[in-house]
Amino acid sequence: MTEQTAVTEQPVSKVILPDAQTVTSVKHWNDRLFSFRVTRPASLRFRSGEFVMIGLMGDPHPETGRQKPLLRAYSIASPAWDEELEFYSIKVQDGPLTSKLQHIQPGDQIILRPKPVGTLVHDALLPGKRLWLFATGTGIAPFASLIREPQTYEDYDQIILTHTTREVSELQYGKELVESVRNDELLSELMGEGFADKLVYYPTTTREESPKMGRITDLLKDGTVFKDLGIEGLSPETDRGMVCGSLPFNKDIMEILEGAGLREGANSEPAEFVVEKAFVG
After folding, report:
1. How far is CA 222 from the centre of its chain?
2. DSSP letters of 243-259?
3. How far is CA 263 from each of CA 40, 74, 257, 258, 270, rounded to the nearest angstrom?
4. pTM, entire model
5. Tens of pLDDT, residues 107-152
6. Beta bridge partners of 130
7. In this structure, are residues 99 and 92 in contact, taking their beta carbons and an 8 Å threshold?
8. What are the percentages of helix, strand and coil residues in the chain, rounded to 5?
9. Which of 14, 3, 137 is nearest to 23 (CA)?
Protein backbone atom coordinates (compact mmCIF):
# COMPACT_ATOMS: atom_id res chain seq x y z
CA MET A 1 0.00 0.00 0.00
CA THR A 2 1.24 3.40 -0.85
CA GLU A 3 0.06 6.96 -1.14
CA GLN A 4 -0.86 8.86 -4.26
CA THR A 5 -0.50 12.34 -2.90
CA ALA A 6 2.78 14.10 -3.25
CA VAL A 7 6.29 15.82 -1.32
CA THR A 8 9.26 18.31 -1.40
CA GLU A 9 12.61 16.65 -1.16
CA GLN A 10 13.96 16.79 2.38
CA PRO A 11 16.41 14.72 4.41
CA VAL A 12 15.12 11.97 6.66
CA SER A 13 14.58 13.22 10.19
CA LYS A 14 17.16 12.09 12.72
CA VAL A 15 15.01 12.66 15.81
CA ILE A 16 14.25 9.71 18.05
CA LEU A 17 11.18 7.99 16.60
CA PRO A 18 8.37 6.21 18.43
CA ASP A 19 7.99 2.52 17.47
CA ALA A 20 11.30 2.84 15.62
CA GLN A 21 12.72 0.17 13.33
CA THR A 22 16.04 0.33 11.50
CA VAL A 23 16.36 0.29 7.71
CA THR A 24 18.60 -2.61 6.63
CA SER A 25 18.55 -2.21 2.81
CA VAL A 26 17.07 -0.03 0.07
CA LYS A 27 16.69 -0.73 -3.66
CA HIS A 28 15.54 1.82 -6.24
CA TRP A 29 13.86 0.11 -9.19
CA ASN A 30 13.40 3.26 -11.29
CA ASP A 31 12.65 6.94 -10.73
CA ARG A 32 9.17 6.09 -9.43
CA LEU A 33 9.54 2.90 -7.39
CA PHE A 34 11.70 1.60 -4.56
CA SER A 35 11.68 -1.19 -1.99
CA PHE A 36 13.29 -1.40 1.42
CA ARG A 37 13.73 -3.76 4.33
CA VAL A 38 13.66 -2.95 8.02
CA THR A 39 14.18 -4.80 11.28
CA ARG A 40 11.19 -6.72 12.60
CA PRO A 41 9.88 -6.10 16.12
CA ALA A 42 10.36 -9.26 18.17
CA SER A 43 6.72 -9.19 19.24
CA LEU A 44 5.23 -8.65 15.75
CA ARG A 45 3.03 -11.47 14.47
CA PHE A 46 1.16 -11.10 11.20
CA ARG A 47 -0.51 -13.13 8.47
CA SER A 48 1.03 -12.97 5.00
CA GLY A 49 -0.94 -10.37 3.03
CA GLU A 50 -1.60 -7.94 5.91
CA PHE A 51 -0.48 -4.32 6.20
CA VAL A 52 0.84 -2.02 8.91
CA MET A 53 1.17 1.73 9.38
CA ILE A 54 4.68 3.04 8.74
CA GLY A 55 6.15 6.51 8.38
CA LEU A 56 8.45 9.28 9.51
CA MET A 57 8.17 12.39 11.62
CA GLY A 58 6.72 15.41 9.83
CA ASP A 59 8.32 18.84 9.62
CA PRO A 60 8.42 20.89 12.85
CA HIS A 61 5.44 23.18 13.42
CA PRO A 62 6.55 26.74 12.50
CA GLU A 63 5.38 28.12 15.86
CA THR A 64 5.68 25.31 18.40
CA GLY A 65 8.47 23.30 16.81
CA ARG A 66 6.57 20.11 17.53
CA GLN A 67 6.60 17.24 15.05
CA LYS A 68 3.80 14.81 14.32
CA PRO A 69 4.29 11.41 12.70
CA LEU A 70 3.35 11.03 9.02
CA LEU A 71 1.92 7.53 8.70
CA ARG A 72 0.53 5.56 5.76
CA ALA A 73 -0.73 2.00 5.32
CA TYR A 74 1.83 -0.24 3.65
CA SER A 75 1.42 -3.92 2.84
CA ILE A 76 4.16 -6.11 4.24
CA ALA A 77 5.82 -7.56 1.15
CA SER A 78 7.81 -10.17 3.06
CA PRO A 79 6.18 -13.43 4.24
CA ALA A 80 5.16 -14.05 7.83
CA TRP A 81 8.23 -16.26 8.46
CA ASP A 82 10.82 -13.64 7.37
CA GLU A 83 13.13 -12.21 10.02
CA GLU A 84 12.89 -8.74 8.44
CA LEU A 85 10.03 -6.71 6.97
CA GLU A 86 10.00 -5.64 3.33
CA PHE A 87 7.97 -2.81 1.79
CA TYR A 88 7.46 -1.68 -1.81
CA SER A 89 6.65 1.97 -2.44
CA ILE A 90 5.96 4.56 -5.06
CA LYS A 91 7.92 7.82 -5.04
CA VAL A 92 5.74 10.91 -5.05
CA GLN A 93 7.91 14.01 -5.22
CA ASP A 94 5.37 16.25 -3.48
CA GLY A 95 3.86 13.56 -1.22
CA PRO A 96 3.93 14.33 2.50
CA LEU A 97 5.56 10.99 3.29
CA THR A 98 7.15 9.46 0.20
CA SER A 99 9.12 12.61 -0.65
CA LYS A 100 11.04 11.87 2.53
CA LEU A 101 10.76 8.10 2.64
CA GLN A 102 12.40 7.68 -0.78
CA HIS A 103 15.65 9.10 0.65
CA ILE A 104 16.04 6.62 3.50
CA GLN A 105 19.30 4.72 3.70
CA PRO A 106 20.49 1.67 5.67
CA GLY A 107 20.90 2.69 9.30
CA ASP A 108 18.05 5.22 9.22
CA GLN A 109 14.94 4.64 11.29
CA ILE A 110 11.27 4.62 10.39
CA ILE A 111 8.12 4.46 12.50
CA LEU A 112 6.33 1.11 12.39
CA ARG A 113 3.10 0.60 14.28
CA PRO A 114 3.02 -3.14 15.06
CA LYS A 115 -0.72 -3.69 14.56
CA PRO A 116 -1.17 -5.63 11.31
CA VAL A 117 -4.60 -5.81 9.64
CA GLY A 118 -6.02 -6.51 6.19
CA THR A 119 -8.33 -8.65 4.10
CA LEU A 120 -5.84 -10.25 1.69
CA VAL A 121 -5.35 -13.33 3.86
CA HIS A 122 -6.08 -17.00 3.36
CA ASP A 123 -8.55 -17.02 6.25
CA ALA A 124 -10.92 -14.76 4.30
CA LEU A 125 -11.31 -17.23 1.42
CA LEU A 126 -13.18 -20.49 1.20
CA PRO A 127 -11.16 -23.51 0.02
CA GLY A 128 -10.58 -23.61 -3.76
CA LYS A 129 -8.30 -25.00 -6.44
CA ARG A 130 -7.02 -21.90 -8.25
CA LEU A 131 -5.96 -18.59 -6.66
CA TRP A 132 -5.88 -15.40 -8.74
CA LEU A 133 -3.79 -12.49 -7.44
CA PHE A 134 -4.76 -9.32 -9.34
CA ALA A 135 -2.44 -6.33 -8.90
CA THR A 136 -1.59 -2.98 -10.44
CA GLY A 137 1.53 -0.99 -9.60
CA THR A 138 2.69 -1.35 -6.00
CA GLY A 139 -0.46 -3.36 -5.31
CA ILE A 140 1.77 -6.38 -5.91
CA ALA A 141 3.27 -5.92 -2.42
CA PRO A 142 0.85 -8.14 -0.42
CA PHE A 143 1.16 -10.80 -3.10
CA ALA A 144 4.95 -10.65 -2.75
CA SER A 145 4.25 -11.88 0.76
CA LEU A 146 1.68 -14.49 -0.23
CA ILE A 147 3.67 -16.18 -3.03
CA ARG A 148 6.48 -16.72 -0.51
CA GLU A 149 4.07 -18.25 2.00
CA PRO A 150 4.05 -22.09 2.12
CA GLN A 151 0.33 -22.20 2.91
CA THR A 152 -0.42 -20.68 -0.51
CA TYR A 153 1.00 -23.77 -2.21
CA GLU A 154 -0.59 -26.12 0.30
CA ASP A 155 -4.05 -24.64 -0.30
CA TYR A 156 -4.06 -24.32 -4.11
CA ASP A 157 -3.19 -26.34 -7.20
CA GLN A 158 -2.44 -23.19 -9.20
CA ILE A 159 -1.58 -19.58 -8.26
CA ILE A 160 -1.87 -16.94 -10.99
CA LEU A 161 -0.20 -13.60 -10.29
CA THR A 162 -1.28 -10.87 -12.71
CA HIS A 163 0.54 -7.55 -12.58
CA THR A 164 -0.38 -4.60 -14.76
CA THR A 165 1.80 -1.47 -15.01
CA ARG A 166 2.28 1.33 -17.48
CA GLU A 167 5.94 0.71 -18.28
CA VAL A 168 8.21 -2.33 -18.49
CA SER A 169 10.59 -1.12 -15.76
CA GLU A 170 7.67 -1.12 -13.31
CA LEU A 171 7.41 -4.90 -13.74
CA GLN A 172 10.99 -5.57 -12.64
CA TYR A 173 10.20 -5.96 -8.95
CA GLY A 174 7.61 -8.63 -9.71
CA LYS A 175 9.82 -10.36 -12.26
CA GLU A 176 12.72 -10.71 -9.83
CA LEU A 177 10.31 -11.69 -7.07
CA VAL A 178 8.90 -14.60 -9.07
CA GLU A 179 12.40 -15.71 -10.10
CA SER A 180 13.51 -15.68 -6.46
CA VAL A 181 10.53 -17.85 -5.47
CA ARG A 182 11.32 -20.37 -8.20
CA ASN A 183 14.91 -20.60 -6.91
CA ASP A 184 14.15 -20.46 -3.18
CA GLU A 185 15.93 -23.41 -1.58
CA LEU A 186 14.15 -22.95 1.75
CA LEU A 187 10.68 -23.07 0.20
CA SER A 188 11.75 -25.99 -1.97
CA GLU A 189 12.90 -27.83 1.14
CA LEU A 190 9.62 -27.07 2.92
CA MET A 191 7.27 -27.71 0.01
CA GLY A 192 9.20 -30.20 -2.09
CA GLU A 193 10.83 -29.71 -5.49
CA GLY A 194 8.50 -28.44 -8.17
CA PHE A 195 6.28 -26.45 -5.80
CA ALA A 196 6.87 -23.33 -7.88
CA ASP A 197 5.39 -25.02 -10.96
CA LYS A 198 2.06 -24.04 -9.43
CA LEU A 199 2.95 -20.34 -9.76
CA VAL A 200 1.99 -18.59 -13.01
CA TYR A 201 3.19 -15.03 -13.64
CA TYR A 202 1.12 -12.93 -16.08
CA PRO A 203 2.57 -9.40 -16.46
CA THR A 204 1.06 -6.79 -18.78
CA THR A 205 1.80 -3.17 -19.67
CA THR A 206 -0.59 -0.48 -20.84
CA ARG A 207 1.77 2.16 -22.23
CA GLU A 208 5.19 0.81 -23.13
CA GLU A 209 5.56 -2.06 -25.61
CA SER A 210 5.98 -5.48 -23.96
CA PRO A 211 5.26 -9.15 -24.78
CA LYS A 212 1.72 -8.76 -23.41
CA MET A 213 -0.06 -5.43 -23.79
CA GLY A 214 -3.35 -4.33 -22.27
CA ARG A 215 -5.21 -3.88 -19.04
CA ILE A 216 -5.82 -7.15 -17.27
CA THR A 217 -9.51 -6.22 -16.97
CA ASP A 218 -9.83 -5.99 -20.77
CA LEU A 219 -7.85 -9.21 -21.25
CA LEU A 220 -10.19 -10.99 -18.85
CA LYS A 221 -13.32 -9.63 -20.50
CA ASP A 222 -12.28 -10.63 -24.02
CA GLY A 223 -11.03 -14.04 -22.89
CA THR A 224 -7.37 -13.48 -23.80
CA VAL A 225 -6.11 -14.46 -20.33
CA PHE A 226 -8.05 -17.72 -20.31
CA LYS A 227 -6.89 -18.59 -23.83
CA ASP A 228 -3.26 -17.82 -22.96
CA LEU A 229 -3.36 -19.94 -19.81
CA GLY A 230 -5.52 -22.77 -21.13
CA ILE A 231 -8.30 -22.10 -18.63
CA GLU A 232 -11.99 -22.29 -19.48
CA GLY A 233 -12.95 -19.33 -17.30
CA LEU A 234 -13.81 -18.34 -13.74
CA SER A 235 -15.97 -20.57 -11.58
CA PRO A 236 -17.08 -20.13 -7.95
CA GLU A 237 -16.50 -23.86 -7.48
CA THR A 238 -12.78 -23.70 -8.27
CA ASP A 239 -11.53 -20.10 -8.44
CA ARG A 240 -10.57 -17.71 -5.65
CA GLY A 241 -9.34 -14.14 -6.04
CA MET A 242 -7.44 -11.42 -4.24
CA VAL A 243 -7.43 -7.87 -5.58
CA CYS A 244 -5.08 -4.97 -4.80
CA GLY A 245 -4.83 -1.86 -6.94
CA SER A 246 -6.36 1.51 -7.61
CA LEU A 247 -10.01 2.03 -6.69
CA PRO A 248 -11.22 1.96 -10.35
CA PHE A 249 -9.20 -1.22 -10.95
CA ASN A 250 -10.64 -2.87 -7.84
CA LYS A 251 -14.16 -1.97 -8.95
CA ASP A 252 -13.65 -3.37 -12.45
CA ILE A 253 -12.15 -6.64 -11.19
CA MET A 254 -14.93 -7.01 -8.62
CA GLU A 255 -17.53 -6.68 -11.38
CA ILE A 256 -15.78 -9.38 -13.41
CA LEU A 257 -15.54 -11.75 -10.45
CA GLU A 258 -19.11 -11.14 -9.37
CA GLY A 259 -20.25 -11.60 -12.95
CA ALA A 260 -18.72 -15.09 -12.82
CA GLY A 261 -20.66 -15.89 -9.66
CA LEU A 262 -17.92 -15.25 -7.09
CA ARG A 263 -18.81 -13.44 -3.87
CA GLU A 264 -16.73 -11.00 -1.84
CA GLY A 265 -15.50 -12.38 1.46
CA ALA A 266 -13.99 -11.06 4.66
CA ASN A 267 -12.17 -12.33 7.74
CA SER A 268 -15.52 -12.71 9.49
CA GLU A 269 -17.28 -14.30 6.51
CA PRO A 270 -15.00 -16.13 4.02
CA ALA A 271 -16.13 -16.35 0.39
CA GLU A 272 -14.60 -16.55 -3.10
CA PHE A 273 -12.67 -13.27 -3.39
CA VAL A 274 -11.34 -10.41 -1.27
CA VAL A 275 -10.30 -6.83 -2.02
CA GLU A 276 -7.84 -4.62 -0.15
CA LYS A 277 -9.73 -1.34 0.10
CA ALA A 278 -7.04 0.41 2.15
CA PHE A 279 -4.67 0.52 -0.84
CA VAL A 280 -4.67 3.92 -2.54
CA GLY A 281 -1.53 3.94 -4.74
Report:
1. 26
2. EES-HHHHHHHHHHHHH
3. 35, 26, 8, 6, 9
4. 0.90
5. 999 999 999 999 999 999 999 999 999 999 999 999 999 999 999 9
6. 158, 239
7. yes
8. 25, 30, 45
9. 14
